[in-house]
Design a protein that fits this description.
With 252 residues, the chain is an alpha/beta fold. The protein has helices spanning 21-25, 32-43, 57-70, 88-96, 104-113, 121-124, 158-169, 189-202, 230-251, and strands at residues 12-19, 45-53, 73-77, 100-102, 128-130, 134-136, 145-148, 151-154, 179-185, 207-215, 218-227. The chain starts with 11 loop residues before the first strand and ends with a helix. The model has no long low-confidence stretch (mean pLDDT 93).
């Protein structure tokens, strides 16, 4: 059977929602955004937006409802722990208009994990799951995340989030993978800006970005091209390479 053309494979979109006062204050440095974005690129999901909101119910509810209506998936991190300020689960329930209570499945997981007498009231908070949600298993610390429709609610601790994300990624549909090529250019981006703009007009279906850097004490540029169509990507990259070669020869 022939491979599907890029046009035949749907584009799957997503947003990342980071929840936590500690991220906004700078006290905790987020490590999840880059991980999720790179993971999604590799499996064929386009991250289109990232939002960071405080531990405020109204802010979480508004962000969740806006993002879940706009994208195929929302990946949420943070705020599902045992402390009083972990309000993500309750906020998600409010956003979806469903009740929340101790989920028997989650209670069983925590009961099996903690020694007798260690499953206190605070830890039991982690078993409160909105009605109708599917659990996201947590191989690291056991307390599960959950999925409500297209919203996937995970922990903020990177090692735990990563384990949860593996569970999520194995179950959700993905789309056509974004391919990329990098063309190194031994001159500053200001010298090639006009020509790159013209090439972009010639290849509107290929994303072309220029990223300045220093190379051996001089300005240089990486031109990064991205497309789901391998043939068009190669054609655009070759066009950039020919442009660069012509400019280098003219300046030699």
């Amino acid at each position: 059977m022939a491979e599907p053309t890029p046009e035949a494979v749907p584009v799957v979109t997503a947003a990342i929602l980071v929840i936590g006062d500690e991220i906004l204050s700078g006290r905790t440095k987020d490590k999840n955004i880059g991980y999720i974005a790179e993971y999604c690129t590799n499996i064929g999901i386009d991250i289109r937006e990232v939002r960071i909101v405080p531990d405020v119910e109204a802010e979480i509810v508004a962000a969740v409802n806006a993002l879940r209506a706009r994208y195929d998936h929302v990946f949420s991190t943070g705020g599902i722990g045992p402390t009083h300020d972990d309000i993500t689960a309750d906020s998600m329930a409010k956003a979806f208009g469903v009740p929340i209570d101790h989920d028997p499945r989650a209670v069983a997981i925590l009961t099996d994990h903690y020694a007798a007498g260690q499953l206190n009231e605070a830890r039991m908070r982690m078993a409160r799951i909105p009605a109708g949600a599917d659990l996201i298993l947590n191989k690291v610390s056991k307390a599960p995340g959950f999925t409500l429709e297209n919203v996937h609610v995970m922990a903020g601790v990177p090692s735990i989030m990563q384990a949860m994300f593996d569970e999520v990624a194995a179950k959700i549909p993905t789309g056509a993978k974004m391919l990329s090529r990098t063309v190194p250019v031994g001159m500053g981006e200001g010298r090639i800006a006009k020509q790159l703009g013209e090439i972009q007009l010639e290849f509107p279906d290929v994303s072309i970005g220029s990223y300045p850097k220093m190379l051996d004490g001089s300005f240089a540029t990486d031109v990064v091209l991205r497309s789901r169509d391998a043939a068009r990507l190669d054609e655009a990259a070759q066009t950039v390479e020919k442009m660069v070669a012509a400019m280098m020869q003219a300046n030699s």
